[in-house]
Amino acid sequence: MNENKLVPEEIIASKIYEIRGEKVMISSDLAELYGVETKVLNQQVKRNLTRFPERYMFKLTQEEYKALRSHFVTLKRGQHSKYPPYAFTEHGILMLSSILRSKQAEKVNIVIIDTFVKIRKLLLLDKDVLLKLNEIEEKVANQDQQILTIFNYLKKFIKEESIPKQKIGYKK
């Protein structure tokens, strides 16, 4: 079975959020992708807490969770946990693959990590493009000043040419 057929990258990308300056996935989304109940995923995580330092996984605050829920109009009351979920960074997702041992989890994990890598590459590309644009903008801004200086000299030169000058030489 082709792993890309299992879960399209677009679906995974739509479940990656930026929280606390980190690209993360929420435990309920991961459980759905892995084909397990959120409760089962959370139990496995709690049994292996030493594998998940805060840079790998953190629990959302109530405010973060409310903001996340309000971001989606489709979330219905009662369908999702009233308790804030865990948020897993890319490294936390890698660690999840060592505690969830199903074939589907393994295959989905590969697609998730590939998606994170593509997002990182796109962000780096965007950063490079922005740097180039800033560089061009600085050059153009500098050129505008130089062009204005040239025009000022030309105007001065034209004014000087329009003033009749005394001829040099012998007068008759």
Structure report:
The protein is α+β, with helices and mostly antiparallel strands and 172 residues long. 63% of the residues lie in helices and 9% in strands. The protein contains seven helices and four strands, in the order ααββααβαβαα. A four-stranded antiparallel beta sheet has the order 1-2-4-3. α3 crosses α4 (38-47) and α6 packs antiparallel against α7 (103-162). It starts with a helix and ends in a 10-residue tail after the last helix.
Brief synopsis:
The protein is an alpha+beta fold and 172 residues long. The protein contains seven helices and four strands; from the N terminus they run ααββααβαβαα.
Question: What is the overall number of helices?
Answer: 7
Helix content: 55-70%
Low-confidence region ranges: 74-78
Strand order of the largest sheet: 1-2-4-3
Helix and strand succession? HHEEHHEHEHH
